[in-house]
């Protein structure tokens, strides 16, 4: 059996929860006012998208460093479609990698994205089990 993650999530009253993390930091989760919460925490489904972008982003950042690539700015836009029927889940997710710089090595940056998407990112693999993924890389030359 492989490694495990154990997360403890405690109800804080109302619709709010606090969840720990192996990093030692906590995250607050709350529903919006339309669902009886106060909107003082992160929404669970959106948090999944942050996890997806963060996981892949860590891969790409690591490869940018290893490949000694020049990138002034890098961001990931994650746009997900929720199903209409309950339980509502993401059935389609578009992930856009945006690179900014005056000396972008497009070929190597695309390779870094491909390696993350196809080989390294475990969260991407989890999403692939329930959603159709659309990957796009955009280069913004200065």
From TrEMBL:
Superkingdom of this entry's organism?
Answer: Bacteria
Pfam entry (one):
OsmC
Entry-linked SUPFAM superfamilies: OsmC-like
Extract the InterPro entries matched here: KH_dom-like_a/b, OsmC/Ohr_fam, OsmC/Ohrsf
Put simply, this protein is called OsmC family protein
User: What is the organism of origin for this protein?
Assistant: Croceitalea dokdonensis DOKDO 023
């Amino acid at each position: 059996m492989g490694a495990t993650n154990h997360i403890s999530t405690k109800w804080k009253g109302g619709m709010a929860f606090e969840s720990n993390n192996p990093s030692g930091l906590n995250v607050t989760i709350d529903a919006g006012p339309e669902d009886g919460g106060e909107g003082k925490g992160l929404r669970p489904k959106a948090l999944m998208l942050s996890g997806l972008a963060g996981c892949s982003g860590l891969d790409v950042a690591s490869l940018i460093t290893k490949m000694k690539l020049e990138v002034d700015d890098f961001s990931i836009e994650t746009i997900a479609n929720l199903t209409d029927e309950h339980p509502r889940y993401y059935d389609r997710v578009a992930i856009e990698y945006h690179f900014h710089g005056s000396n972008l090595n497009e070929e190597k940056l695309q390779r870094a994205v491909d390696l993350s998407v196809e080989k390294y990112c475990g969260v991407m693999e989890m999403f692939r089990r329930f959603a159709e993924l659309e990957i796009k890389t955009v280069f913004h030359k200065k």
